[in-house]
Amino acid sequence: MTTSFSAGSLVSARGRDWVVLPESAPDMLVLRPLGGADDDIAAVFPAFESVTSAQFAPPSPTDLGDAQAAGLLRSALRIGFRSGAGPFRTLAGIAVEPRAYQFVPLMMALRQRTTRILISDDVGIGKTVEAGLIASELLAQGSARGLAVLCSPALAEQWQDELRTKFGIDAELVLASTVSRLERGLDLGQSLFDRHPHVIVSTDFIKSTRHRDDFVRHCPDLVIVDEAHTCVAADDNKTTTQNQLRYELLQRVAADADRHLLLVTATPHSGKESAFRNLLGLLKPELATVDLGSEAGRRMLAPHFVHRKRADVRQYLTREDGLADDSLAEQTSFPSDRHFKDETYKLTPAYRALLDDAIAYASDRVTAADQRGRREARIAWWSAIALLRSLVSSPRAAAQTLRTRSATAAAVTAEEADRLGAPLTSDFSDSDALEGLDVAPGAEAADVDNAGARLAELADRAAELEGPTEDRKLAALVTHLKALLKDGYHPIVFCRYIPTAEYVAEHLDGKLGKKTIVRAVTGTLSPQQRIERIEKLAEDAGDDPAARRVLVATDCLSEGVNLQHHFDAVVHYDLAWNPTRHDQREGRVDRYGQKRDVVRVITLWGSDNGIDGKVLDVLIKKHRQIRKDLGISVSVPDADSAGVTDAIVQWVLLRGQQVRRGDQGSLFDIDEFTGLDKKAAALAADWQSAAEREKTSRSRFAQHAIRPEEVAREVAAVRDTLGRAGEIRGFVRRRCTPSTASCATARTGPATSPPNSAAPPPACATPSPRSSAATSSNGAARCRSAPRRQSTVAKSPWSAPTRRWWRSPATSSTPP
């Protein structure tokens, strides 16, 4: 049996009305219900089911309404049909309203047959949204069938939440903690990457030889790599094994010329030109060797590279961008600056004596171990660093470190000792993950005579120093927090170790005012529990203008969690030994959506502990100066940063020997004693050179692939077709006026409803889940349904042409 229903016809079947889709065949109709979404599409066989033309009752005099009802109907129809109109397929179905500048990467992507782009906009501009826009559009058009996001485990749940809530893409987490459960649900011989088309994968889990082959064989045709700069190897001997494994994985993924690849990072250079070239080579092999100083080289790179800082997009689509007027001008509110203030404290005599005795012990350990072999020397070295860092952090962290066996004590070789000790005591910016790195390291080695008794005695002394009386660092924190709270700020206090964060939160509770709520978030909580605790903190504080929020956290929150909506100041309770970590902490609140024009940053440092002052001068202040000069952050290479901090530790240990013995000691000669200044000078020179290269690249590789006038055309088309968030907000508010019975019923419930019973859902839910920051905080958000995942089974007849009309800038700005 054949049917005469053409595409677009309205039919009745299964007790409801449908629209016939173009994918229908003579003996099978592909139908979408009126008012339904892609997930409701169904196939009907007229030979077996009754399908008739849809009939609608003719109007009658009783149907007469008023002007308000007619206006509502018009708005509802326009909103309901948005999903099939506009220059982009997915904008009507996503739950975020992109900024105009965020269309640039999307337009660049749609001009390529196979999308290969490096998105390297500055921190806080919205790279996740830009990548999500491209992914949702490629999936909706059918250019991609599956999606894989490669990221660190700490960022996985945030990526999952962003894709689901903003773009309607349901992705499965593939982590070390979830893979066993996922594999139990597979059929014989089936790959989990075939079972789950959209996945978010831990880069460090999948890079292992056990898993990467299966991933490469079944890899989706669209891959997003977050923090891509940590996944490339430089052409030198300083590349870590982990970086090399990640790079090898990406090389195999990028080898498929038909695979879409989005690389996302705010720091594409990281001070190494060869690493930057290898990153570009993943997009297009020729970019690894082309002369980027030539006009031809820049033209080759331009379609694949978007590289902007905040100043480039703060004011966009204005006359200064070459437009005729400011009718489409868009101002993005980023904080204009960070106000830095370094506050010092001095140790009490008891704390000073404890630190001197601990330094003397560590110095003796390093000297003795140096005579026993390289393995023992490296174990002693990492134990000494652990002891010094924990003592400078807090009495509680010191006591726990002194009572805990060092992880390096189990090392068989010197290399294994370095592998075990470095992550727990250093602050490398390209660590595999921040998970588990905030635990207090151990200092005890089982093979040292009488070490246990000596360490136990030091631990007992450390425990007695808890509280603001003997711990002047804690007392200084209370003073500065009170000043911030008085000025209306809501600060985050960052600590290096879990015991320190718990200790600080415990002593702050009740000391900052009755309306100040203090909570701690550390690595003892799962990523989801951390988010829940932060949200609970905001909920407990409520909307009272006098209420204040104080969050004490470890670096488990320095990546992946955006805190700008709840906090506006940062206190570095513990100095990180890599300034990039400070920038990551501050970047949690200094980003788009922050209401403060100036973010306050306070750094506490000990003037007499021998470590903080030199770290502050050599690393932290230099990093700030470069950021101020360029307007962006330039990472210090981990190897150079580690070299300086190692020299600082050597200097402190040597000073401990001199104080105790009254001589130069036996471990370091005079050259090593003065080596700190030499290493600091060399680091400053290399860092400044990297900053100059970054400054040059910012101007050389400025985004010119898409001109502002092209963006303006598409923004105008989007707004004309889809409207703005204000239109939806106005529609919902008009629909929910008290005179509207359905919404009044939804608010109060039917008259027969028993007390405390749930009211029925409001009838004012809009047909589209699209929203913006403006609508998410008002009543309209509560009347909005959750976004549905885009279907890739059935597409409109414009699916393929929509993508291809982007190929030439001169073509019309509306799809055929």
Helix content: 40-55%
Strand order of the largest sheet: 8-9-7-10-11-6-12
For the termini, the CA-CA separation is: 34 Å
Q: Please provide the count of β strands.
A: 20
* CA-based shape: globular
Strand content: 5-15%
| Structural class by helix and strand composition | alpha/beta
Rg result: 30 Å
| Mean residue pLDDT | 80
The biggest sheet amounts to:
7 strands, parallel
Number of helices: 30
What's the assembly state of these chains?
single chain
Unreliable stretches? 664-673, 744-816
Describe this structure in a few short sentences.
The protein has 816 residues and is α/β, with parallel strands linked by helices.
Descriptive labels:
7-stranded parallel β-sheet, 6-stranded parallel β-sheet
What does this structure look like?
The protein has 30 helices and 20 strands. By secondary structure, it is of the alpha/beta class. The strands form four sheets. It has a seven-stranded parallel sheet with strand order 8-9-7-10-11-6-12, sandwiched between helices. β1 (10-13) and β2 form a beta hairpin.
SSE layout:
Layout: E1 10-13, E2 16-20, E3 29-33, E4 42-44, E5 52-53, H1 67-80, H2 103-110, E6 116-119, H3 127-141, E7 147-151, H4 153-167, E8 172-174, H5 179-184, H6 192-195, E9 198-202, H7 203-206, H8 209-217, E10 222-226, H9 241-254, E11 260-264, H10 273-283, H11 295-301, E12 305-306, H12 310-313, E13 315-316, E14 330-331, E15 337-345, H13 349-370, H14 374-393, H15 395-403, H16 414-425, H17 451-463, H18 472-486, E16 491-494, H19 498-508, E17 516-521, H20 527-541, E18 548-553, E19 569-572, H21 579-587, E20 598-606, H22 612-630, H23 638-661, H24 670-673, H25 675-700, H26 708-722, H27 725-735, H28 741-748, H29 779-782, H30 799-804
Parallel strand pairs: 6-11, 6-12, 7-9, 7-10, 8-9, 10-11, 15-20, 16-18, 16-19, 17-18, 19-20
Antiparallel strand pairs: 1-2, 1-5, 2-3, 3-4, 13-14
